[in-house]
Structure formats: C-alpha cells, structure tokens
C-alpha cells in the first residue's frame, strides 16, 4: 500500500499543478498534463471508461473495472486537482488580481516552450500537418477574441458549462477558465467552490464527467489515427492562446465587472504600458519569470522516458 502511495505521489503533484493552472483564465490544465508527460496516459485512461468498463462494474468485477480504467492513476490525479482547487483558489485569484503581470510572465514562457516541444513531436512535416497547426492558432485567436454572453444560472446550463469547460481544459492551449468567462460562469463557479455550494458543484462536476468521457474518446482516436496533425493542432492552440497571458495588459475601460475587464484587456508593449498606466513594466522580473517557465519545460522534457515512461509507469 505504501509503495503504491509513493508510486502515485508524483501524479497527485501533477494534478495539483493542473488544478492551479485551470483556475487561471488563459492557461490550460491540458498544457500542464502535456509538459509533465502524462497527457496521453490521461486520455487513454479516460477513454477506457466505456461500455466494457461499466459491464465489469455491474458484474461486481470491481478489481477488473479499476484496472481497466487505470483507476489508481485517475484517482491520484483527481485528488491532486481537487486539493489544488479547494486550497489554492483564493491564492491564485489574489495573484491574478494583484500580480497578474508576473503570473502571466511565467505561464507565457511555459506555454511558448511547450508549444515548440509539442510541435516537435510530429514525426513527419506534411502540408496537412502545417494546415492543422495554422488552424489551431486561428481557432485559439478566435476564441480569445469572443465577447461574453449573458447566461442563466439554471441547473441545466451549469451542467452544460461543465461539459464545455472540461472539453477545453483537456485541450492544451484552450483554457477552460476562459471558456467559463465567456459563458459568464467563472466567478459563479469559483464562488460555489469558496462557499461549498454542494448542489452547484455536483451539477458542474457531473457535466465535467460527461464531457471528459465523451471527448477523450474523440481525442484518443485523433492521436492514434492522425498523430502528427493532432500534435500540430494542439501546438497551434497553445501558440494562439499566448495573447491571453501576455504580461503587459491594459484592463478594459469602464468595466465594473472584473470578469469583463479581464476579457477585454488590451495587450501592449512594455514601453506603452508604462506610458499608458504610469506603472512599472517590471521588465527584468518578467523576463526572468519567462525564462524560468521555459527552463522548467526543458527540464521536464529532458527527463528520461518523458512520455513513454509515464504511460508504462501508470499502466498498472
């Protein structure tokens, strides 16, 4: 038992990182899963929650069911994500509100380096692969330029928001939190977590579960049948999303709602940031944090058996 806990402790740690990233609009937990080497293991585990798995469960073959879905891996990851969201939500929100420039700097470097490395995973460089990459960039740019909509706070829409947001969260480069911002439900869901609104949380999580099991099958097939095109598509998503984590942003004017201020922020150069806000662009700390983000990704990439090792280590 202790050996199992030790074996899966790194997965829980990665879940904590994923949960922290998912709180930040513009950053995807899928990106963290990819750079920590567990992305394909996660997708494969999720898509294994299928009819065969439920047959095993209904037959009370609990052990066989658990092994089929790689339950130890999924549970360890889920524990980390929940720990992160419950314990770090207020800290991340504080950093986002008071030190967003430095927070975004780190993630800008992290996402940029990740996109380059993921693009390098393509085994061939065909026209279709490059078109997939370009499409990914355009889709991400389109999503990040959308305006928010007014939506109801009914149970069915919270459920639907869970499906849509979790689909985005498992795609590197597409931020589930940003999707919630567009849907007008980012603050609503965070407040539900803060206030332990069990009913709202349960409805949202159920939607997330439905979205995960459905979309993971599609993504698994894409990775298997169109590996190179999918890799460059995901890299494109990440490159296109960089506009939302650009360190020097001018918040939207006359926006009493902090959600809308974040959505309508304008990216500027460091010099223009100082001119327009009379605030310190913190150029040196920003560059250092960007380099730190890049360096972290490179260290993870150079770790032996990064992707295949993860798949083998957590397959039992």
From TrEMBL:
InterPro entries documented for this protein: VCA0040-like (IPR007163)
Key words, A-Z: Membrane, Transmembrane, Transmembrane helix
Residue intervals passing through the bilayer: 32-53, 73-96, 102-120, 127-149, 155-184, 196-219, 283-304
Pfam families referenced in this protein's UniProt entry, alphabetically: VCA0040-like
Keyword Methyltransferase on entry: no
Name of this protein: Integral membrane protein
Organism: Prosthecochloris aestuarii (strain DSM 271 / SK 413)
């Amino acid at each position: 038992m202790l050996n199992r806990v030790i074996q899966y402790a790194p997965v829980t740690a990665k879940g904590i990182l994923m949960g922290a990233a998912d709180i930040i609009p513009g950053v995807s937990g899928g990106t963290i899963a990819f750079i920590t080497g567990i992305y394909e293991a996660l997708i494969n585990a999720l898509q294994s929650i299928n009819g065969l798995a439920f047959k095993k469960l209904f037959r009370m073959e609990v052990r066989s069911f658990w092994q089929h879905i790689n339950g130890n891996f999924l549970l360890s990851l889920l524990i980390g994500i929940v720990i992160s969201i419950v314990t770090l939500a207020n800290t991340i929100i504080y950093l986002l509100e008071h030190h967003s420039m430095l927070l975004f700097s780190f993630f800008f470097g992290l996402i940029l380096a990740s996109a380059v490395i993921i693009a390098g995973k393509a085994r061939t460089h065909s026209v279709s692969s490059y078109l997939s990459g370009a499409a990914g960039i355009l889709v991400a740019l389109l999503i990040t330029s959308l305006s928010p909509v007014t939506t109801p706070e009914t149970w069915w829409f919270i459920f639907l928001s869970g499906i849509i947001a979790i689909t985005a969260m498992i795609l590197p480069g597409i931020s589930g939190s940003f999707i919630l911002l567009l849907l007008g439900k980012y603050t609503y869901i965070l407040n539900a977590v803060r206030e332990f609104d069990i009913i709202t949380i349960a409805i949202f999580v159920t939607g997330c579960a439905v979205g995960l099991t459905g979309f993971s099958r599609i993504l698994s097939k894409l990775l298997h049948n169109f590996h190179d095109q999918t890799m460059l598509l995901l890299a494109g998503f990440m490159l296109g999303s960089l506009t939302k984590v650009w360190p020097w942003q001018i918040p939207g004017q006359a926006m009493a709602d902090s959600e809308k201020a974040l959505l309508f922020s304008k990216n500027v150069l460091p010099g223009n940031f100082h001119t327009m806000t009379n605030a310190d662009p913190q150029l040196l700390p920003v560059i250092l944090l960007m380099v730190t983000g890049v360096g972290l990704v490179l260290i993870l990439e150079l770790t032996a058996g990064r992707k295949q090792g993860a798949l083998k280590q957590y397959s039992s």
